[in-house]
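Rotation project, supervised by the postdoc (A.L.). Task for the rotation student: set up a whole-complex structure prediction and record inputs and outputs verbatim in this book. Inputs entered:
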Amino acid sequence: MTKPYIYITRKIPEEIINPYLEQFDFKMWEKADEPVPRDILLEEAKQADGLLCMLSDNIDEELLNEACSLKIVANLAVGYDNIDVEQAKERGITVTNTPDVLTETTADLTFALLMATARRIVEADAYVQKDLWKNWAPYLLAGSDIHHKTIGIVGMGRIGEAVARRAKGFGMSILYHNRSRHIEAEKELQATYTDFDELLAASDFVVSLVPLTKDTNQLFDRDAFDKMKSSSIFINASRGATVDEDALYEALQTNQIKAAGLDVFTEEPIGANHPLVQLDNTVCLPHIGSSSEQTRTDMINLCLDNIAAVFRGEAPKTAL
Ligand code: DGY
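Outputs recorded:
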């Protein structure tokens, strides 16, 4: 009997797929650091019974139309704005993502980015590396305090709550905005629900953790940055397209807001010439929210578990 054919759109460690070799025929795109070219992805999807794909792969109607044997798309990310989930469902294709396993790791990165931006850690490291440190000075690379300030979390899902727990440890006041109230978080973390505008006006740190949907596309626009304090710091660890990057650039350049820490961008990857990278008051990271060795391995294992469940005729753990 032929085994189901699973195409993996990036090179991942062989030992992770070894336990599944009896059940599946696997093929991987040969490169770990470069996405599979679109034409190869389309060709492979035509043959594949399952896809293990990355957030950088566009799983759209064009691909799904040709993918006649496809039963599951397992996305190696919690966000799934790269997949036309509705079209997949209409064709009876299961789509899974990787929630939970990455929550704490992504919250660590979000808080690290907040701290690095507020305390100018990247600039300070460059200062030493460039041999500029000649004297101690009272306001040398003076940044913004984090402790006892107000954090406003937009998108109070699992990662938002995990960030709020970290903020609580720093004695911060926690505001949040979300589609629905999180009564547990309010009780456990003394988080206060506010409307979006109120959160923008009152927060020292505005943290975007909202999933990208048609409602959150460019949520942080000129109007939003206008409402923020001139001392406020904006952090984005969700998806780049939740922000109007031109408006953010202008707000940072004119000191309408103080600084930004960004792990995500509208078009990724960005180059060193990207306007936001040119600014001194911005820390830019290459979308590494969930990138710890352990968590990435856990995410791949969850994708493989989900694929295996579908071919056993069972419900996968994390279907959308
Ligand atoms: C996700 O899983 O959606 C994150 O953006 C990855 O870091």
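Student's summary: Residues 5-99+293-311 form a domain with the Rossmann fold fold (CATH 3.40.50.720).
Supervisor addendum: DSSP finds 13 helices and twelve strands in the chain.
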